Q: What sequence folds into this?
């Protein structure tokens, strides 16, 4: 149970609960123990997403809007919820939403309903009985209370799609039998990991195959490898690898690792040295579209390592994979290098990667930086203004590495913000909005930029004196009943450690705190850095002309500086029809713009071109123009 006092006066007002429930981002962070406080016990026990806070948010919205009946399955979900409050701290950390009151409202609503009504008993049918004969009765359902939790996501291009069934298989053999059953019965199926792709890709009207119960994880450190099932999340894998002195190349913490490889090949700041796509893969097991089981290491297996831009991906469900482990050394840390313009920032990152300097490299925009390290939207806005208007920091290049990497990176950097300075800035964010530090920097400015003064080695004691950084100061910015929780949380050194935060990526999900995020990801050549800025300005124009909010996200150089992974993000309130309409137009314009970029420079690819081809060799798509098959 979490260690803060819940406000027992939390409102049971239906409209307030509905307002919160409909704003769930579906990032699935409530399904992993990313704060070290535990995970929803009901979800862990029952597996269906309906038992996790994410699913209960959808259920509550559907019940209050009379879109589903009160069924025996719904009562089971509500009764399994103990109101332990874990979801409140987890969700607030990511989105500032407070689901605890939503679930109080659901329980109260059901108590009133049952005073004069009986729940609906949903009958099984022949297909469901056959599913249950494969997985066991508790792992397949057609109850609307469970189905509704798989029917929506915040994507502006998707709409509610109620499945007919959901099944949660436990291993490869069960997946194989389920696929063959669907083929015999003519039932369409959709495969789902944690559903965190949030672009409508995991919705379907037939059967949803939820892979989260396939949670095998076996380490073979003598071969620097780990075998994982399709239900293992990036965070869980990284945590267990770290405990053994290793690291994996992992992306968003709640994403299921196998699904993430299949979807996009996995990229992170560590892709600068660890690579992407098949680089981190030793072997993988699949169930084909016909229900047959094969491994990539078989000589007669389908060639998922190849890439063709204009051909559809080979169909298959990855049920387990053997993934590379990378050793961690005790001298690893991080630095941050500030820049006032994009071309200089990208140029520095490219030079580092071309020289194999650093384990991880990322150019972060102001939106990402301020949002990631601020526990509230209000503090993030303060930090954005200070960085942009007062300090002159538009971009920050984060470099992760051992002491030799960082020594070289410092030598190549114009100025450096050390880890200790970044920790002081994070814990002192509330004071950054005050005049003290700004007036001090203005008084010393001269010809130097404010961030250049901030980066001087002898400035740290002064910064600490003026900002008075502490977990207690930072926690004063959150709701009163969460202050003690945040103070205790930020007393843990890893919460202000750039290396740890980029390894486990628990703050990256905050990028959707102020609205659902629509991410556009490109692979761009870095031998033409002005073109990269041209892409950035193109996105800015699309966002401006269509009336949507958008910002540059990040760029990570890969393959010795030859290419970069570039992300630009658009934001919306997915519950606002007007904003959804604007976003749909912006996405259409962006698609046309990206096609134009690719025609101008065929080396430019966007995520659409590689979607569901993540097991390909990265060389196959980064340099697809040099292959024998130039399509």
A:
């Amino acid at each position: 149970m979490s260690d803060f006092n819940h406000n027992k006066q939390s409102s049971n007002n239906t409209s307030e609960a509905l307002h919160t429930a409909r704003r769930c981002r579906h990032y699935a962070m409530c399904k992993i123990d990313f704060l070290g406080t535990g995970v929803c016990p009901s979800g862990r026990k029952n597996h269906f997403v309906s038992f996790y806070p994410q699913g209960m948010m959808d259920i509550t919205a559907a019940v209050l809007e009379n879109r589903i009946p009160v069924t025996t399955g719904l009562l089971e979900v509500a009764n399994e919820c103990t109101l332990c409050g874990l979801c409140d701290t987890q969700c607030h950390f990511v989105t500032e939403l407070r689901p605890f009151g939503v679930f109080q409202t659901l329980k109260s609503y059901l108590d009133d309903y049952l005073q004069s009504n009986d729940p609906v008993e949903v009958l099984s049918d022949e297909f469901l009985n056959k599913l249950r004969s494969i997985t066991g009765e508790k792992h397949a359902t057609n109850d609307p209370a469970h189905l509704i939790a798989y029917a929506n996501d915040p994507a502006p291009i998707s709409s509610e799609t109620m499945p007919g069934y959901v099944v949660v298989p436990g291993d490869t053999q069960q997946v194989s039998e389920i696929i063959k059953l669907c083929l015999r019965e003519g039932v369409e199926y959709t495969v789902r990991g944690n559903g965190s792709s949030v672009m409508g890709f995991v919705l379907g009207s037939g059967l949803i195959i939820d892979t989260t119960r396939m949670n095998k994880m076996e380490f073979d450190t003598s071969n620097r490898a780990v075998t994982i099932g399709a239900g293992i999340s990036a965070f869980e894998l990284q945590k267990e690898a770290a405990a053994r002195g290793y690291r994996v190349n992992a992306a968003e913490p709640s994403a299921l690792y196998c699904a993430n490889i299949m979807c996009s090949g996995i990229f992170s700041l560590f892709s600068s040295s660890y690579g992407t796509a098949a680089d981190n893969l030793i072997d993988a097991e699949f169930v084909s579209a016909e229900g047959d089981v094969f491994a990539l290491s078989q000589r007669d297996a389908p060639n998922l390592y190849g890439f063709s831009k204009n051909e559809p991906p080979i169909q298959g469900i990855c049920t387990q994979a053997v993934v590379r482990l990378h050793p961690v050394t005790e001298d690893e840390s991080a630095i941050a290098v500030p820049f006032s313009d994009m071309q200089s920032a990208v140029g520095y990152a490219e030079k580092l990667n071309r020289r194999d300097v650093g384990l991880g490299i990322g150019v972060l925009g102001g939106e990402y930086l301020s949002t990631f390290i601020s526990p509230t939207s209000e503090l993030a806005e303060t930090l954005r203004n200070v960085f942009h208007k007062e300090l002159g920091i538009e971009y920050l290049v984060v470099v992760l590495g051992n002491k030799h990497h960082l020594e070289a990176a410092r030598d190549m950097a114009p100025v450096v913000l050390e880890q200790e300075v970044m920790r002081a800035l994070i814990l002192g964010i509330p004071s950054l909005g005050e005049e003290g530090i700004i007036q001090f920097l203005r008084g010393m400015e001269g010809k130097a930029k404010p961030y250049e003064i901030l980066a001087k080695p002898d400035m740290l004691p002064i910064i600490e004196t003026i900002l008075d950084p502490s977990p207690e100061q930072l926690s004063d910015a959150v709701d009163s009943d969460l202050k003690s929780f945040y103070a205790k949380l930020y007393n843990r050194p890893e919460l202000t450690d750039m290396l740890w935060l980029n390894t486990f990526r628990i703050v990256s999900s905050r990028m959707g705190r102020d609205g659902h995020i629509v991410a556009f990801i490109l692979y761009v050549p870095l031998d033409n850095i002005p073109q990269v800025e041209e892409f950035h300005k193109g996105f800015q124009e699309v966002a401006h002309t269509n009336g949507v909010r958008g910002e540059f996200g990040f760029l990570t150089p890969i393959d010795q500086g030859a290419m970069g992974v570039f992300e630009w993000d658009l934001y919306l309130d997915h519950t606002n029809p007007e904003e959804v309409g604007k976003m749909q137009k912006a996405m259409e314009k962006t698609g046309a713009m990206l096609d134009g970029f690719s025609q101008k420079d065929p080396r430019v690819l966007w995520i659409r071109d590689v979607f569901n081809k993540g097991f390909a060799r990265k060389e196959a798509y980064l340099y697809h123009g040099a292959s024998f098959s130039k399509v």
Q: What stands out?
A: Residues 203 and 396 are 37 Å apart (CA to CA). Confidence is low (pLDDT under 50) at residues 1-12.
